[in-house]
Amino acid sequence: MPIQRAAKKKKLGGRGALGAGRGGGSSREYSDKRPVHAMKLAPCMCNCPQGTPVREAINTISLHEKHGLSLDESFTKAWETWTEINPFPAILGRVCPHPCEGDCNRKTKDGGVSINQIERFIGDWGLKQELKLKKLDDAEDYSEKVAVVGSGPAGLNAAYHLAKRGYKVTIFEAFSKAGGMLRYGIPDYRLPQEILDKEIQRILDLGVELKTGVTVGKDQAFSDIEKEFDAVFVGIGAHKGRLLGLEGEEDANNVYTGTQFLNMVNSGNPPDVGKKVVVVGGGDSAMDAARVCLRLGAEVTLLYRRTRNEMPAIEEDIVGGEEEGVNFVFLATPVSLNVDGDKCTSIKCQKMELGEPDDSGRRRPVPIDEFFELDIDTLIPSISQEPEFDGLEELKAGPKDWVKADEFMEQDEEHHHFAGGDALNLGTVTLAMAQGKRAAATMHARFRGLTVEHEKKPELVAPEKILTNYFDPKPRTEVEEEDVKERVKSLVKEVHRTFTEEEVVAEASRCLSCGMCIECGQCYSYCQDQVVARPVKPGEPFTFNLDACKGCEKCAEVCPCGYIEMRLPGQAS
């Protein structure tokens, strides 16, 4: 119990006295508050739907020398930390829109940390070293069996987090290979299928059974699966693309939805798109289709009814399309087709202007009385997509609704139905994986009679708690891109390469470790009363002799990561 003292005054330095030496600055009163280590949530982890331990994994690399680890050991340990939550670092390191980087506290200094590229390196390291996923130390051989319908990112992650606990999981996949939209909706130049195969195989190696070529609802009744398994996770994805709804569109054999086109290409059967292709849409699938058609030798025009600012596609992919030569035509939409026999030969387009915001928060496109025509060899509407419910109508929440699930990913608690991914609503890969992980946790709780609770997150570290000026300026490490002229010649040549070991170490060293100790020793150096003691072993925390503490708060003020807080005795941490 800390010694209680009456208020005293003493000359002590303030927040701005880092370079002034000990004790410089204005006077202040002693306090009954005492320092505590209060780990907080970093903004990168807060913005990750999966809650991936980004900070811990990166610190493993940046602090490897302090902790007595070789680089190889730190890379392996970082991979193990990352895959506790996310079994697909090599995949997500290539396709995730990296919301983790959005609020990085380093942005205001010299650019946010390139977390996504670090993730990609960690993932590729795991593949290179043939590292294996592991079951939990307290995993048991549970009797309950779970069926997963669909092997997209939601279903695969649900299977992973169930299998690592010790449950028996069987995945039913309609296509010939696992992966869902990861395999059939993302081009190889963004996600090589070899990478996909290897990271999926690690989940199967945990004992997960995969049955491909089985369409639940057609080849096998959903009711039969219900009888055989103790719970069912529905992750059927949204593979059915929407057409424009124009006359003659469905009869033309050179019109493909975005999902249909990408499926054909990724299945090894790309259609002959000719010389002039028009892609309609502004999302990720539209950008992927447009850039694939460039690689098939076509001139590509992308029509989008809003402006570039409203495009929902990942910014890097929009920039990539611009660099490669996609012709963007904004504020325009097709209104009619010219069809000759079974082929669409041209489209009539109407110009638009932006009006008031709609439900999405984006300004609504409003038609104006101006039109133009485009000759085409292939038309690819990529405006939206939806799940295919043939034989699974009972899963729909209503005539026009998709599958519905609560925050615990339960679709039907009574029948032990769970759901996640695009079957609920179109979203990112990492969101789908988060939903699969959450569903697995809920199933485990139901099976074991545990309380299903809301996920509790630590307090988010406030930006003002981070002393960015403590850290030396270090420009963000930008990864090299393949030459534009070379990369458009191949459907499989990746646009970016993976960081080298030197680059990943340099980038990891830029992490501010928001809300977690980096063992800088600032608290030790600035404490005049010998309250702070250095750790006995590397990696252990500094400790406080609270009986000697006067509550001057200097240790908290000079902690660059916001890890130390001053609290009254008995105050909740």
Number of helices: 18
Helix amount, in percent? 25-40%
Tell me the strand order in the biggest sheet.
6-5-4-7-18-17
Per CATH, the superfamily of the largest domain is: FAD/NAD(P)-binding domain
CATH class of the largest domain: Alpha Beta
* Count of distinct structural domains: 4
- Alpha-beta content class: alpha/beta
Please tell me how large the radius of gyration is: 27 Å
Q: What is the makeup of the main sheet?
A: 6 strands, mixed
Summarize the structure.
The protein is an alpha/beta fold and 573 residues long. The chain contains 18 helices and 21 strands.
Features:
573 residues, alpha/beta, Alpha-Beta Plaits, Fumarate Reductase Iron-sulfur Protein, Chain B, domain 2, FAD/NAD(P)-binding domain, 4 domains, 6-stranded mixed sheet, 4-stranded parallel sheet, 18 helices, 21 strands, 28% helix, 18% strand, globular, disordered N terminus
